[in-house]
## 1
Amino acid sequence: MEQSRLVIVMAHYNNPKGLEESITSIDEQINVDVIVVDDGSNSKPNEQLLNQIYKLGQIHFEYLDQNSGVGIAANLGLALALKKGYELIGRFDCGDLFMKDKCLKQLNYLDKNKDVKLLGTWANVIDNHGEFLHELKHPTDYESIKKKMYLNSMFLNPSVIFYSEIINTVGNYPLKYKRASQDYAFFFKVIKKFKSENYPEVLMDYISDPNSISTKKRRLQVFNRIRVIFDNFYFGLYPIYGLIRNTALLFVSRSFTTAIKKRFKLS
């Protein structure tokens, strides 16, 4: 099978079932290759099974000797994607699910809008029991994204597809924000150099997992988000409001904010 234009990079840690479910959900009319980087798991990916069930492209497996964090695992995947010459790179997290033709719709949009170099999508937020919580609908236009990035990330990391060439300019996921918010810092670097948008359609199910980094290390994530805002700060309404808002979030649980979003159908 010929190499695809697009490769999906996935970091895996002790979740072979979630990995299988996610890869199985890729349902496209185009070929899509996958890179799985195992982050020092005790429960390794079942390579034989995954190669049997996935027919849309090649799966490449890489293994870290010890658990090093999702940022290091993701960067290894990006480096492999560049080495293999993929034009486009997508991200995906174990347990999340793509909807039919998600990647095709994004690639078609990118082909028609050559100035856009990174494209995310909207998503349904689902709990780990399969219950719908709320929709996640980030702004679609570049100008709004640049302003509101100071409040929170305006991209859902496992939804994005971007041109691999941008890594040569902005670099990989910054590891100075250890164990949390590397994607937020990465997206800040991207939007400063390249036009970036969100596709205005719900194209994936994002699992709000109580064991995820955004839940278990929420205070660290919010603290690092504040650091990212400071690193990109200028005196303006959105940066100042973003600092105030995220400082307040240090004292509020994620379960509370999720309940508010569910109650008022907020993004």
## 2
Amino acid sequence: MFRDRLDAARQLVERLAHLRGRNPLVLAIPRGGVPMGRQLADALEGELDVVLVRKIGAPSNPEFAIGAVSEDGSVHLGEVARHCHEDVLADEIERQRELIAERRRRYTPVRAPIDPTGRIVVVVDDGSATGATMAAALTTLRQRDPARLIAAIGCAPPDTVERLAALADEVVCLDAPPHFQAVGQFFADFGQVEDDEVIALLGGSGQ
């Protein structure tokens, strides 16, 4: 159990301390990953940006990820998505693409996304249940040719960690219990992170 996201971030900093001074690019998955990303970027003397991916939820259960959409427009679908009606799935994909574009306009309106090419890249999120969002981020970033690609997460089930290990050069997961239910169960304080907080964290150092 973590006290909050910053507690998990401090523990990730300890596991990634070897990156300090190597100017890593920390890419946080909004919104929960951003407070953690700010902590990592400051402690590791790196840069912070967001990697924008959106979960595609099942029509009958929006919280259950059946795939994800990346900022470059690519779509990553799991096997279960084959059972969804094509028109419903297409509408949801387009809605998530529009949300990604809106978030980029809000989060970094005066600059382009930081280029990960040739950089040590750390993709951070508070947790990953199905791995769909993190997997989409890693797959998209791999195409940009980073020097090293690391997934850093607070918690995930073992099969998700195994899946992500095939997409990253390294996976740092603080807790991977076999009986995983939801990310929030691992945090005493799992309050929602709002857009205004994300914008503030991207604009300067955390506390």
## 3
Amino acid sequence: MGSLHPVQVIAVTGGKGGVGKTSVSVNLALALADLGRRVMLLDADLGLANVDVMLGLTPKRNLADVIEGECELRDVILQGPGGIRIVPASSGAANMVRLTSQQHAGLIQAFSDISDSIDVLIIDTAAGIGDGVISFVRAAQEVLLVVTDEPTSITDAYALVKLLNRDYGLSRFRVLANMTHTPEEGRNLYAKLTKVTERFLDVALQYVGAIPADELVRKSVQKQRAVYEAYPRSKCAQAYRAVAQKVDSWPLPANPRGHLEFFVERLVNRPTTGSSA
């Protein structure tokens, strides 16, 4: 089997809808691919698969087919722009938590088969803080929290951090401000969030940067293309480039838990309360 290849698993989440998680996931994936990373994007927004819609792709099969044993993981992978590969969502994958041991083993096998060919797995999670979101975020190794300048965004992000910290022992979160209007806005959002987390929780938040609000994002959505690819010189694309460089410098997992099969193990095994998962 060769040596285990460490894969950076990043869950993009936000606690609420409308903060631009899918846009962040897709554009960050493209920016990392530009740095020479082999990137796979897992659309885990199970009720509303939108990565494929955003990029004008039409998947014939999805993760549910893999779990059912009807096809291999490589049969569902879509080729996206910039060499990124996309695993489309399956609306039934809420059943991930209720897999038979055979399905469970099959899923782990499927991901370990591809782990040597990717460096980064980005997971676009659903909105809210439902079970599906928690499973994916808890299993990932880096949590990228997308926030915007609206009161509910900060309160929902805080609720998510609190839940993940108190119930699942997660203590490190990365914060990305999206759709900002001034350079200060992102820092201020980060400050607001850290003010509440520092008072009530034992967590470390790190500020990753801000993606400016950009009219070209809407235009690229209409073209069913990612802004990073459609308008590579836009302010927005430049910001993604800067964020990707930061993400690329995050330490790779040194322990075996940083390998894809362990990610899937954690995804499908609900932790028992009181465990140090």
## 4
Amino acid sequence: MSTPDLDRARTFVLTHGRLLDRLRLLHLAGEVEADRVAAALDAYRNPDGGYGHALEPDIRSPHSETTSTLAALELLDHLGLHGTAQAEGALAWVGSVITEDGGVPFMRHESEGWPLAPWMATDDKGCHLTFGYVAQAARHGLTPAWLGRAQAWCDDRLDAPEGLGGYHLKYALKLLDACDDDPLCEGRIEALRHHVRADGSVPVSGGEDDEGLRPLVLSPEPDACSRRLFTDGQVAADLDALAAGQEADGGWTFDWAGWCPGQELEWRGALTVDALQTLRRHGR
């Protein structure tokens, strides 16, 4: 079993990471309070309540974006800052971008023309992020006006689980974990089991040849309802692989395409903190 080198990980993040991720690391180490991290997150917040400015490293637009705003809500959730004015404003902003089908789009037209990863593209239909937003509304205990339409969008797809896969599955599990008191939750999770390969991973359609979503990406919390999809052996093997994934410079990296140096370092800083959080959560 590999053991991560915490000193090298700390040096990597403090040397290469964004201020936000440096503070996330220091918060994980117990050196700064959650509100210091939230203050750094506010730098990405726009007056409309959404978040942009490359909080999602693959989209360099200053405009409020659905990927960035969801990342902000998830960070507030991880910090235990639920139902704050920031969360309320972010969820209210979503109402301005909801599509005709009741879903949340992948990217807004306002960001076209800004530096973007090749796979970032506009679409006027709802996407997998819709599951994530409904999950965050539940996690933050908020009921924005658009919630009913988005929940119906999610229900339609959970009722036909054979059409889900890759990132749809990842975010569907986030929703089911956030609403695990729903009597339908257990059955809906079981209906997704056939998507999981023997090693516990789920392939990403259209991704890199070796790109896949691992058990700890699909179900990062040890006590989550979704964990029933994975065996103890699959989770243990993934924890071993995660611990062994630390690179010589002390950081962790990603298995999707890198397309500019800034994007690569920003992702690596964030993912290094994520890796340390996951390993700690599992006693590693």
